[in-house]
Amino acid sequence: xxxxxxxxxxxxxxxxxxxxxxxxxxxxxxxxxxxxxxxxxxxxxxxxxxxxxxxxxxxxxxxxxxxxxxxxxxxxxxxxxxxxxxxxxxxxxxxxxxxxxxxxxxxxxxxxxxxxxxxxxxxxxxxxxxxxxxxxxxxxxxxxxxxxxxxxxxxxxxxxxxxxxxxxxxxxxxxxxxxxxxxxxxxxxxxxxxxxxxxxxxxxxxxxxxxxxxxxxxxxxxxxxxxxxxxxxxxxxxxxxxxxxxxxxxxxxxxxxxxxxxxxxxxxxxxxxxxxxxxxxxxxxxxxxxxxxxxxxxxxxxxxxxxxxxxxxxxxxxxxxxxxxxxxxxxxxxxxxxxxxxxx
Length: 344
Known about the structure:
Elements: H1 2-14, H2 21-36, H3 40-43, H4 46-55, H5 71-83, H6 92-108, H7 121-130, H8 136-148, H9 168-182, H10 190-203, H11 210-227, H12 230-243, H13 247-252, H14 263-277, H15 280-302, H16 319-327
């Protein structure tokens, strides 16, 4: 595995001029996180990568302000690197300029902007929360966004597909819980959070996919721990039990190791559930999916010449997210999961 990762860094990441600017930043994050676990060979390459990242003009971001692949995702990664001590430069001026650009982008596109986590307003609100409401412009934008999505919590819109990262209702619930827990001024969100929880309870019999069961279970557990409701924890346990039935047959239906709709995403969900509850069954399932991720990651790295660049550099849709998960196995050093709402 080590030699495959080494080859990936040398031949794909170093030599490619076709990676998106967010992909370069994702690889910088991976290399810094590797340094935490003693992989100093990778960590010492970071100066080269960061210089390469700085030399790229993020033109691919100008028309895209999403968390998935655009300016919000770029700002989120940069903020994470700075907050976690990976970057020593003073980036407040640059981040403030990004805040202003994002504000203008979302203001221009407000009427057409969808309430989604990866591609719309929810991802932007997540970024603003990540910035700890550190300026007046951030606070004002958060306030506007909060009111524009206020009615979304009771929407009955069905998730777009089986991927947990597309279940915008539950992701909104997790985001609101983060705000409720960390910021006193958002205590009024309790009713919005409970409305989402009740919506999940009323529709729980129709939640059939493993990923949707897991993310719904995680949300209901967290609601219970905040507001103590036996119905929520009972349903959270029931959804968790349903999710790990027939693990082997489920594994055959997933052919990639990525966070988005792949094995590493499922492993991360089980790990988050275990950290939250301490239930042994969740750590067992996490180890199973971690093993599947390692197998499938090796396959992608081995045959990377047949893999699109978009499936190599991306955290969500590529190999970087899988490598981050594999790096952090057996440790509590997984703050990077906060980027996708799995580490509050």
